[in-house]
Structures are given as structure tokens and as C-alpha cells.
Amino acid sequence: MSDANPNLVYACEQWEIDLGRRELRSRGIPVPLGGRAFEIVTVLVQSASELVTKDDLMERVWPGAIVGEATIHVHIAAVRKALGADRGLLKTASGRGYRLLGSWTPVPRGAAAAPIASPATRATETPPPNNFPPVITRLVGRSAAAQVVRDLVSAYRVVTLTGPGGIGKTSLAIKAVRYLLPAFEDGGWLVELASLSDPDLVPSTVAGVLGLRLDGEISAEGVARAVATKHLLLLLDNCEHVIDAVANLAETLVRLCPRSTIVATSREMLRIDGEAVYRVPPLDVPAVGHHEPDHILGHSAVELFIARTKALDASFSLRAENAASIGEICRRLDGIPLAIEFAAAHAAVLGVRQLTADLRDRFALLVRGRRTALPRHRTLRAVLDWSHELLPEAERLLLRRLSVFPAGFTVGAAAAVMTDTGLDAAAVADGMANLVSKSLVMRDESEAGTRWYLLETTRAYALEKLGDSGEAQYVARRQAEFCLALFAPFGTEGQLQAAIDDLERYRVEVDNLRAALNWAFSNDGDASLGVALAAVAADFWAAASLMPEACAWADKALAQIGDAGTRHGMVLQYSFGITGLLTRGMNDDARKALTQALTLAREFSDFDYQQRATHGLWLFLYRTSALDDAVVLAHQFEEVRGFGDPQSRAVVDCWLGMTQIYRAAHVEAIERARRVIDHYPIESRGRDTLRFAGDMPAIFAGQIAVSWLSRGLLDTALQWALKAVEQAGVVKHAYDQRRPAAWAAGYVFLSLGELEIADRYGNETINYASIRGWKPFHATGICVRGSLAVKRGDPGAGVDLLRRGLAEMRETRYQLYYPSFLVELAMALGALGHIDDGLAEIDNALRFAAQTGNRCFLPETFRVKGELSALRDPDDLAVEDSFNRGVELAREQDALFWELRLAVSLARLRVNQKRPREAAQILAPVHGRFTEGFEMADLRAAKALLDALPP
After folding, report:
1. Does 757 share its domain with 901?
2. Do 271 and 325 belong together in one domain?
3. Would you say residue 444 lies in a domain?
């Protein structure tokens, strides 16, 4: 800035802006402010409170350079920080620019204070002196971070780069400040402090690097006075073990050397006035579950791994077969550059696959670093040993105990494993703050500062220390007891709804819960504590949609207690039974567990678990199509003491109504569905969704669409099916959101010819069931996919898919829609010319209906039997007999839709028999009874056929 008058000092109340000394002073005391930040102050104060636009500011402070918005914001923030309580003097005009408020009076400078030249430009192109090491390898993935550091260095007088060992603080600092060297006429100087063992040697070490000749005792103040007028940048590297001495030196330099800028690298901050801190992040790593090479290669940790491995093995490259392993290696090493470089050295020798397998013992494996590295950087263990040895004993104790929390921890969790030390939560929080400042504990930015965690590498190291300390069993017990108390609301009826509403708070603890259960059920654990924890957490697993895990933990806990008739046993029997039905299918072990849960619930007069267990047993009977037994069970529950409140009446309406759909009692089913929608207490739905592993009103809405369809109200059927999907989202349980969609897509959408909708929800069902391990719903999705293939003209693919899905249904005994998909398979076989095979599947469907009472699909079954028989011999009397039997059943069931399909088949038969008037007489009366759905495929086909027939 050439237009600044160095002979002026601007004054406003307690503040002075000395253009000659390039100082911002408060009550005569200099306030640290970086060079570019001071130039912003100069521009603003010379504008006499007028607005300075962003463009003008950039042109005057960074002439000829391209500067981004982020750079300006960093520097403006530095000025505000320097102004402290008077930060309001710097006013922002949103989107326009800035002004400096106040009455700033320019006065001539005192003659005693010589002005200092502006560092904005250099008179010569000769590079300034420096001792920075030459750049040998490219610094991967640090461009954005380097720009942030550059901005901070030009805005602040002291900038500290912090982070755990091996994160790359030194490399980043050198990369960033090398670019800024031309702005420092006396150069940039790297002072390596790692080898110092005595903090008193810090000033003499700095003096030696700068080439200072100091008389007498060498002190921080002596060094500062020797460079008081110099314009230099000092990079103090690896300060953590001499942090107090470095902080004292930096503070003294800032006070006495207005033209000096200090950059420090340390595992903890200096904690001095005017310091800006940049926490160096790890390199970015691929997310779990992404295996595509292009996705994996787009992350800087992977880029570094490949670059370093390739440097040692020129033939190495990322390929489809090793991409997932490389991503996993980088994740498990937390994106820490030094650890990745170690891993790359081994990959070049061992190969990626072997490295992945061996990485479990990362400290034994990752020992091959660069020979020229500092001793503390030559192995991964040495990196952490260096930090650990600098900790006081109390912080070492806290660090190793925090390692029992794989999912991170709150202050309360940390305090829970420190109770024997006599420290309260406040003292533990102080210890955590110290570990955060030393880059050993990380703050979870997504949790607004309320949660912390250890990097996996740090945690593995701390776990080793915990094992060596002899405290491991005690700490594991305290962690398990903490989880028991934390998850207690899920095991308390009165607190369950609140726990559901606060589900995200518990989701983040899931790995801690797993760790606690694993310890409790281990040989060194406490099985009774594990049983209590498994029982308390049973509803949590359901709420979190982790049904297979709920089943597995209940199974493990039940193995510990056998047939003991306890409340924990009741809860676990129910959990094992209901989750077993959902994930493994309608198996006898699940039914036995639910029966035992109901027996115990009756013994304890526990209405909650009587209702839950009855629901589970009803679900078993319902899905295996033992429909008559399901009706009996539902009526039995009406005799339970406590029955009669609106919720329990609505639940029984759900049970009976859904059962009657498949018994083809559609009028009763629809009436009960209306009652459920009108009277199911809305306040009960969230809790009941968890208690019954499903949102009953939404499920019923999807199911009752079958009855609306059967009765010929096609628009209504479609609306209810779609409504079911929408209703599933009312209650926030992910597992429930696909179930109504699975049923509706599996039958109603297919029957209505809404193939795109069926395809979308069928695929969602398959994907979701695959992720969650829900075998019954996976079978449904596969059958939907097969039926769609047939309807889209590919019966071969349809047969394969339907046979696969039906086999899964038989395996899981999930049989509600089993006969309908047998009919779909029969049609596909007929389209391929396999008539006898198709008729055999029809016979299977008819036998199934006779054995189970699942009569809903019978009219369509007889229609397809007639169509297949006609393909073999259109004059066979069995053709018309099948159609007529179907019509009779459709009329008994008041199933107008199925009667229409049968009427169309009969009419076509009459047309083929040259009896068109009879065809019209059969079809017209049935078609005329419809009141809606005229745009649906079946009604359009019937109308087209009628139009082609004589009146």
C-alpha cells in the first residue's frame, strides 16, 4: 500500500492505529495483528468511516492477486478478534463491503519512533533467505488446507497448526509458508525443536538458527530484541514437549518485534493472546459401503496410498479387485498421512490383500518408515509413544479408560469409567479438554461439541495400555453398567415413548452397546449383567431397525438363563420370537419363544407383554395362512384382564380385519379398517410401531387395498395402497416404511396394471430387505420382480425369479401371498408352452387354499386354470367348469373385480365359439356394476371387448 502516510497515527478513544510502526494499540499496548489484516485496517481508517467495497479492498490490499471470499473473511475475523470488546467498530454491509466506525483523529507521529517500511512489495526479485528443506515429493490432498493456513498467517501474528502425531503438520506448514516467503524480506526460518530435552534451550536454539550473536545469558527477550526490526517469518516445529518455553518466546516476539510472524506446529496450542489455531484434518477417506474404483480414487488418503506405493512398486495401480481393500486400509488408519505412508511401504512388498489381513495388529505391522525420519516418526507406535510420554499420569489414566468407548463418549460416559478415581464430571471434563488440546481426543463436530472420540489408531494404542494396566475388566464393567443405565428408558414402559422420540441420541451409542454386550458375554465378563443389558436394549434394537442383531443378542442371553421364569426372560423370549419371525421367517423356535413369553406375561399379569406376545403369535398364524386359528387367538385376547381401552380394541380390529381379508370376508375387513383408521389412538402409534414391529394402521391400510380391489373399487384400492406408503412415514421407524409398500406392490399395484409403481416399490423392498436381513420381505420383492417380467413379455426370466422367490417363501413360511404368486408362475409357464407344469402349480395353489383357509385368491386361481386348460384344448369342458367355479366364488366373496376378469375370459371363450351375443350377455352386466376405475387396465380391456361385440 503505497498511499499510506507513515507519519500519521489515527486515534479513537483507547485505540491507536500507527501507520509508521504498523501497530494497532489499545491504551498504548500493541495488539497482535497480521500484515495483511493491518493493511485492511489502514484502508478502512483512511476512508473516514465511508464504506469500502469488497472489490476496492481486494485491489488495495492484494494488488494484482486473485483473492477469494474466504480469504477476506479470515482477515476481517482477525481484525475483529484484535478489537476484542470493541469489535463492533468494524461494520459489515452485507454483500457490499466494510467500514470502520468511530471518530478517528489523525495526528503526527512522535519523532522518536522510526517508521517501519510496508512489507507489501519487495524491491528485488532475489528470493529471501530461508532454511526450508527442498520439496522432494508432492504433498497430496492439502491444497485447500494450505490456502487456509496462508490466509491465517497473513491475518494473524501467531498461527499454530495442531493435530495428532503423523497428521502432517510440518509438511503442511512448510508448503503454506513457502508461498508467503517473498513477503518477508528477512526470510523464513525453520526451527526444529523435536530433539530438545531441556525447555531452557529453546531461545538459544532459535538464536542459533537465526545466526544471532548474543552476549551473556540467552533469553527470549534477548532473541526478541536482536530481531526487533527484522521482517521475518519463524516456523517453530514440534513444540509440544517444550510448549511453555515456546509460548513464552512467541509472546515475547509478538510484543517486541512488530514485523515478525510466528508459525508453530504442535500437538497442543500455545494458548497465548492473538494466537490463531488451525486443527489439521486427516486426509479424506471413502465412506463405508462404496466399492466403486472411481469413488474410492476420489479421496486424498487413497491418492496418497497409491502414490507412495507406486513410488516403491512402479507396476502398482488401483484396480477393481483391490479398490475396496485400499479404501478399508485408509479408513482404518484414520486418513493419517504418516500411517498411510507406512502402510504403502508394506503394500509394495506384501500386497494389498495381505496388508488388509495383517492390519489388525497395526503397531506390529507398521514399522517400516523412512530411515531419514525423526526417531519418533519411524514407527506408528513411536508416534503415539511420543505423545503418551508427555502426558501427566492422570491424563494417561483417562486416555486409556476412554478406549473402551468405540463409538465415542460424552462427559457423563467418561466420568462413569473414572468413578474410582474420586474425580467428578467437571474434573473429568477438564482432563478431556487437556487431551483435546493435545490432539489425542477429537471433538465430534456433528454433535455440537457434546461428544468426543479417539481416532482408531489412538484407541488401539490406548487399549493396549489399558490391557497392560490391569484395569481392563474393571473399566469394561463400568462401561457396561453405564450402558445399562443409559438404555434403561427402553426397558421402562412409562419412558419408552420418550426414548423413541430421542432415538438419535441412542443410535450414536450402538457400538458402545455392542462392546458392553460382547464383554458381558465373554469368558471374563458378567453374564447376569449381559442378560439385564440385552433385555433393557431389546426395544432399542427394534427401534433402530437392527432386527437380526436383536434376535442374536436375545438368543445369546436366553442361553445364559435357560427356562428361568424372570421378567428379563419374558422380554428376551418376546424379542427373540418377534425378531426371528421378521428376519428368519415363520420358524418353530420363534413360535415357541412367543408362547413362552405369553405364559410369563400371564404369570406376571403384564398386559403390555400379553398384548405383544399375542400379536407375535397372531402374526405367525396370519403369515403362515393359519387364518382360522388367527381369528380364535384374536378373540381370546378380548378376554384378557385390562382389555377394553381404545388402543386394545383397535389392535384386535387390526388382527381380525387383516385376517378376514384373506378369508375373503371383505365387507367385515373394510368395516374394521375404517374403525382402525378412525379410532386408533394417534398417541399410541409411535410406541406401538416398536412394540408390534410395525405401524398397524399403515400396514392395515396397505392390506385393505386388497379388499377394495376385490370389490371392484379400483380407484379406492389404488388410493389406499398409496396412502399406506405415505402412512408408513408418519412414524419414524425405517423398517416399517417398506412393509406396506412391499405388500401393496406385491399384489394391488400388479393387479391394477400399475407396473412402474410396483417396480419401484418392489425394488425398494428387495434392497431394504437385503440390507436389513429380512428374508420374508426379500422373497416378496423377488416375486414382484418375476411377475413384472412376465407382464412385460419375458416369461422365461419371470419363471426363474418366481421360482426363486417362492422357494424363499417356503423356506421362511411367509405364505400370505404364496398362492397368488403360484398363479403368476402358472401363467408364466403357460406363456412358455409348459401347460402341464402350469396346471400343476394351480393344483398346488388350490391345495394350499383348502389347507389354510386363504380363499382370497381362489377366483383368480380358477380363472387361470381355465385359461391354461383352453391353451391345451379350448373345447375341453374343464375350461368352462373352471370359469364357472371362479364366478361362483367371486360372487360368494362379493369380489366384483375377480368376477370381471372371469367374465372377460368367458366372453372371449364365447367369441372363439362363434357365440358373440352370449359373450356380450355375460360381460355387459358385470361391467355395468362398476362405479370407478374406468382408466384401469382391466376395465379398459373389458370395454374394448364389449365395443367389439354386438349389443
Report:
1. yes
2. no
3. no
Question: Kind of pairing, strands 261-266 and 158-162?
Answer: parallel
Answer whether residue 710 is part of any domain. no
HSE, side-chain direction, 13 A CA sphere, residue 120:
19
Same domain, 269 and 162: yes
Q: How far is it, in rounded angstroms, from Cα 572 to Cα 551? A: 9
Cα–Cα distance measured from residue 665 to residue 55, given in angstroms and rounded to the nearest whole number: 77
Full-model pTM = 0.77
Nearest to 753 by CA among 797, 794, 801, 709: 709
Structural domain total, the chain: 4
Nearest partner of 504 among 553, 558, 444, judged by Cα: 444
Contact (CB, 8 A) for 369 and 345: yes
Residue 552 in grid coordinates:
442374536
Reported as a single tens digit per residue, the pLDDT across 263-310 is 999 999 999 998 999 999 999 999 887 778 888 888 999 999 999 888
The beta-strand segments (E) located in 19-77 are 23-26, 29-31, 52-53
d(CA 636, CA 606) in angstroms, rounded, equals 16
Beta-bridge mates of residue 264: 160, 236
CA 685: distance to chain centroid?
A: 26
Whether residues 250 and 329 share a domain: the answer is no
Residue 728 has pLDDT above 70, yes or no: no
**786 and 830 share a domain?**
yes
Q: Which residues contact 667 (CB under 8 A, 6 or more apart)?
A: 894
Does a structural domain hold residue 715? no
User: Pick from 93, 108, 123: which residue ends a domain?
Assistant: 108
State which residues form the domain around 208: 143-279
On the CB side of 544, how many CA atoms lie within 13 Å of its CA?
23
Q: Pick the last residue of a domain from 364, 380, 396.
A: 380
Whether residues 244 and 268 fall in one domain: yes
Give every CB contact of residue 382 below 8 A, 6+ residues apart in sequence: 375, 376
In contact, 265 and 278? CB cutoff 8 Å: no
| Cell of residue 298, nine digits | 476420489
Residue 588 domain flag: no
Beta bridge partners of 699: none
pLDDT of res. 746: 65
- One domain, residues 216 and 91: no
Beta strands in 57-131, from DSSP E residues, in sequence order: 90-93, 97-100, 105-108
Calculated CA dihedral for residues 498, 502, 508, 509, nearest 10 degrees: -10
Q: CATH number of the domain at 899, please.
A: 1.25.40.10
Q: Which tens digits make up the pLDDT trace of 421-457?
A: 988 889 999 999 999 988 899 988 776 568 999 988 8
Render pLDDT for 522-535 as a digit per residue (tens, 0 to 9): 999 999 999 999 99
- Among candidate residues 136, 57, 46, the one with its CA nearest the CA of residue 97: 57
537 and 553 Cβ atoms separated by less than 8 Å: yes
Residues contacting residue 30 through CB under 8 Å, at least 6 positions apart: 23, 24, 254, 255, 258
Instruction: For residue range 139-187, list pLDDT tens digits in order.
Output: 899 999 999 999 999 999 999 999 998 899 999 999 999 989 988 999 9
Domain match, 744 and 876 both:
yes
Is the dihedral angle over the CA atoms 75, 79, 85, 86 positive or is it negative? Answer: negative
Closest among 852, 937, 949 to 906, alpha carbons compared: 949
Q: In this predicted model, what pLDDT tens digit does every residue of 758-780 receive, in sequence order?
A: 888 888 888 877 877 778 888 88
CATH code (residue 196): 3.40.50.300
* 132: DSSP letter: P
Flag whether pLDDT at 19 surpasses 80: yes
> In the prediction, which pLDDT does 364 show?
57
DSSP 358-391: HGGGHHHH-----TTS-GGGSSHHHHHHHHHHTS
State the DSSP string of 441-510: SEE-GGGTTS-EE--HHHHHHHHHHHHHHT-HHHHHHHHHHHHHHHTGGGG-GGGHHHHHHTHHHHHTTH
We report the CATH number of the domain holding residue 69 as 1.10.10.10
